[in-house]
Design a protein that fits this description.
- The complex is a heterodimer of chains A (117) and B (115).
- By secondary structure, chain A is an all-beta fold.
- Chain A contains no helices and 11 strands.
- In chain A, strands 2, 4, 5, 6, 9, 10 and 11 form a 7-stranded mixed beta sheet that branches.
- The radius of gyration of chain A is 13 Å and the shape is globular.
- In chain B, the strands form 2 sheets. In chain B, strands 2, 4, 5, 9, 10 and 11 form a 6-stranded mixed beta sheet that branches. A 5-stranded antiparallel beta sheet of chain B has the order 1-3-8-7-6, with no helix packed on it.
- In chain B, a hairpin with a 4-residue loop joins strand 7 (64-68) and strand 8.
- Classes of the chains: A mainly beta (117), B mainly beta (115).
């Protein structure tokens, strides 16, 4: 069974540009989660998508946005990049999260390392 | 609001020694608790989880954790450390209700295993 995949592995952008990160969940998983792992700041929850809808959002500005496609893959967009957006962005997937089943195990991808110059 | 505190950002043990990684949480509702491990340049892998029922939870690679409600703790242990256990470990808490799906992670503990 293929795991969670993320692309690209590395992404280098300059301040003010936009970045698009992609995630494909494990087959059969309908929930996708995005996290930011910045150096010294730990793992911060960004977004949760389930069945194509945004279910929950962390404390990030609106320039962090995303969507989930009908095949449950997901895209994270970061607009107007700032230097402090440099981080490892992790995507995770789980079985149906509807109705609030947070105890469903989340399976993580290897991450996309975003560097903003 | 939920939060997680991992005591000790770095823990060093000798090979064969007991591993103890500490995690305390706060949650306004009964929590779901997790331990993850992250090896360099990889994503996180679930070690074990507590949802309901037995408070002593066994996970992969010989790790276990005990949920102690009175102490709001979920410490991770392993009787005998192996070199391959060297990694970063994260404790996480998750809730149902309005914050469903929103896991809060601790800052992580880096485990070093000395030969």
């Amino acid at each position: 069974e293929a795991g969670v995949t993320q692309s690209p592995t590395h992404l280098i952008k300059t301040r003010g540009q936009q970045a698009t990160l992609r995630c494909s969940p494990i087959s059969g998983h309908t929930s996708v989660y995005w996290y930011q792992q910045a150096l010294g700041l730990g793992l911060q929850f960004l977004l949760w998508y389930d069945e194509g809808e945004e279910r929950n959002r962390g404390n990030f500005p609106p320039r962090f946005s995303g969507r989930q496609f009908p095949n449950y893959s997901s895209e994270l967009n970061v607009n107007a990049l700032e230097l402090e957006d440099s981080a490892l962005y992790l995507c995770a997937s789980s079985l149906n999260g509807r109705g609030g089943y947070p105890y469903n195990e989340q399976f993580f991808g290897p991450g996309t390392r975003l560097t903003v110059l | 609001a939920q939060s997680v505190t991992q005591l000790g950002s770095h823990v060093s043990v000798s090979e064969g020694a007991l591993v103890l990684l500490r995690c305390n949480y706060s949650s306004s509702v009964p929590p779901y608790l997790f331990w993850y491990v992250q090896y360099p340049n990889q994503g996180l892998q679930l070690l074990l989880k507590y949802t309901t029922g037995a408070t002593l939870v066994k996970g992969i690679n010989g790790f276990e954790a005990e949920f102690k409600k009175s102490e709001t703790s979920f410490h991770l242990t392993k009787p005998s450390a192996h070199m391959s256990d060297a990694a970063e470990y994260f404790c996480a808490v998750s809730e149902s209700g309005p914050n469903a799906g929103k896991s809060t992670f601790g800052d992580g503990t880096t485990l070093t295993v000395k030969p």
